Amino acid sequence: MNNSAHTTSSPLSIAIVGAGKIGSAFAYQLARADHDVTVVARPGSDRLRQLQRDQGIVTRTGERAATRVADALDEEAAYDLVVVTTLAHQVEAVLPALRRSKARCVHFMLNTFEPERLRNAMGERRSTFGMPMVSASLNAQGQLRSTINSSRKTLHDDQRWVQLFASCGIPSAFEGNMMLWLRCHVPICIGMEAISVAAKRRGKGASWAQAMIVARGLHAVFAIIREQGHGLYPRSKSAFASSPTILVASMLWLVSRVAPIRESLANGLNECRALIDEVVAAATVEQKAALAAAAKSVMAMKPAEQK
User: Fold this and answer.
1) What are the backbone dihedrals phi and psi of residue 74, each rounded to the nearest 5 degrees, phi first?
2) Is the dihedral of CA 85, 91, 93, 99 positive or negative?
3) Which CATH class is domain 13-176?
4) pLDDT, tens digit, 9 for 90 and up, residues 211-251
5) What whole-number distance in Å separates Cα of residue 175 and Cα of residue 128?
6) Angle formed by the axes of helices 208-227 and 289-300, nearest 10°
7) Strand-pair partners of 57
8) What are the boundaries of each domain within the chain?
9) C-alpha to C-alpha distances, 189 to 46, 218, 287, nearest whole angstrom
10) Is the pLDDT of residue 183 over 80?
11) What is the mean pLDDT of residues 168-182?
C-alpha cells in the first residue's frame, strides 16, 4: 500500500461505482469539494434515471452537487481514483471493467470476507481498501440524507485517501490492518442482517430460537477465521467472539425489536446471503473436518431468497 502523503489541493478525477446511499453520500461530499466526480449506476435502474434527471446528487433540503452520470465505468478514462461502494453480491459484475480500466487506483469500500481475492484481481499496487462510517439514506425521489459524525471515522488503508476524504468533510482514519479488519467485520454484518431479515419476516422482533441460530452462526464465522490462521482484530471482535452464545443471542433478540434498525438492516438480505456463501466457500476450500460443523452453523442462519 502507498501510504505516502498526498496533496488534495488540485481537483481529482474520481468515479464512484455504486450509486446507493453510501456512494451518493461520498459523491456529494467529493463533488462539493470541487473534485470532478462521475457516478456510475446500474443500467436501467431507477437510481440511474434519478441521477440523470438531477445531473448530480440532490439532498432532501434541496442542495445539489453536480456530477457526471454514467451507466458503466469508462475504461479509457485515467481516473485518479475509483471508489467501489457496491454491495458484496454486486462486486463480481464490475470486476472485469475495473481490471481493464486505466484508473490509477481502485478503492474498495464494501463488506467482504476475502479482500485478498479483490486485491489479487486488481493488483496490489492498484488496489486499496476501506470501510464507510457514515449514515445515509435515499428517499423515493432519490434525495439524499446523510449524517456524518466526527466520532465515527471512515477507515482507509492508504494515507492518501485519509487526507482526501477528510478534506471533503468525511472524518477519516488510517487502518494499517484493513484486510483483517474487513474479514473480522463480516460476522457482525451477517449476524445483524440475518436477525433483521428474520424479524421483518416475522412482522415483529425475532424469536428466541432465531436469535440462537444466528448467534451460533456468528460464532461459527469467527471459528472459521481462527481456523484459517488469522487472529481476531480489532480487540473488540475478540471480546465479542468469546462472549457466551446466550449473551450474543440476547443482544440480537433485543436489536431485532428496534424498528428503525430492523427495517434498515433487513434491506441487506442479498448482501447477507452473498457473504454467507463467501464464508462457507472459504471453509470448504480449507478442507478441514473441523470446519464442517462451523460451516453448517453458518448456513443455518442464511435467510431464504425473497419470493
Assistant:
1) -75, 105
2) positive
3) alpha beta
4) 999 999 999 999 999 988 999 999 999 999 999 999 999 99
5) 11
6) 150
7) 65
8) 13-176, 179-300
9) 26, 9, 25
10) yes
11) 97
